[in-house]
Model the fold of this input.
Amino acid sequence: MIPYGRQHITNIELKKVREVMLSNNLTQGKLTPIFEKKLSQYTKSKYAVASNSGTSALHISCLSLGLKKNDIVWTSPNSFIASANCAEYCEAKIDFVDIDYKTGNMSIELLEEKLIYAKKKKLLPKILIPVHFGGHPTDQKKIWELSKKYNFKILEDASHSLGAKNKNENVGSCKYSDITVFSFHPVKSITTAEGGASTTNSKIIYEKLLKYRAHGVTQGDYKYKGFYCSYFQDSLGYNYRLSDVHSAIGIGQIENIKKILKKRKEICQRYISAFKGSNIEPINESKNIESSNHLFVIRPKKTISKFFTNNSINYLRKKGIGVNCHYFPIHLQPYYRNKGFKIGLFKNAEKHAKFSVSIPVFVSLKKNIQDNVIGILLEYYNNI
Ligand SMILES: Cc1ncc(COP(=O)(O)O)c(C=O)c1O
Done:
């Protein structure tokens, strides 16, 4: 089975991992700060805090933005469940803003409509979590302008989009957001096996992220009534640290990111040319955007039941193509349906989920294999 995504590891990462494995510090050494520095330089943000997953980075980012019980968070229903679960961890209330069918990203028009309504009902969100679906960044400037008008914080879920740019602005620069979160799961632009990071330009947020990542403690001599401790805890945090072994992989990966992104782009361009004039419609990129090409999502032009995602996935997997669906709408997961979310609430996300499949994009995908994939897809989707 050809997977829809996989990591690209070179001898550089293998060498770095070997070195750290033989060193004194498997964790809490100097490699995680080095990786963080490289991330903040690459994204052009002031600070980066690495975590042991994108999910834990989302969790501590919500906490660092002051998310509390019963606060409201909005995100996109067309995302991985972690974009919503992070609000649940804080006992906040989650709601969704439907997507723009063309791009798969949160619709700015529907966001504005929902904000107008929520203001009247006094139900405005404390945090908005836009998701850069498939690596295509959302229009952060417009969202930022809305955040000033309606007073909410922005946490970008850029799990898909390290390396993407919007009008020459690097995703992760936080020019138009409070925090940006990345995931380094193996299918993403770069990997640390498991891992994630939050970038920000605020020193206050940065210090909170560090504290929540490490048990709620601050390092330093702490003396109390004749006792001594080398750290002190004044809040509740977690152990979400990224080990030096994982950071060693990340350092090798980020040093190679230019090549990784170039190759992913070439593969996507080949798909775009091959599908011209066929019944296959790739998800559309908006103007002035440089995607990280995390996913290549296709939908049929003719939306007939033969092409329901479950039918297409069954057929294509039998043919050896490991296609996947991004995403089963979060609000239709049993956990969220139990909270009262119903089918029909976010129609664009539902239509998208019913007809879309993600096809293979990864650095080691050979041209002849991609040609086979293209042939099978054209035969299936053009045979109406
Ligand atoms: C949009 C999105 N958000 C959050 C996450 C969570 O990241 P991780 O798997 O690193 O915890 C993912 C990972 O798949 C994702 O795709």
Q: What stands out?
A: The pocket of pyridoxal-5'-phosphate is lined by residues 53-55, 79-80, 82-83, 131, 157, 159-160, 183, 185, 196 (CB under 6 Å).
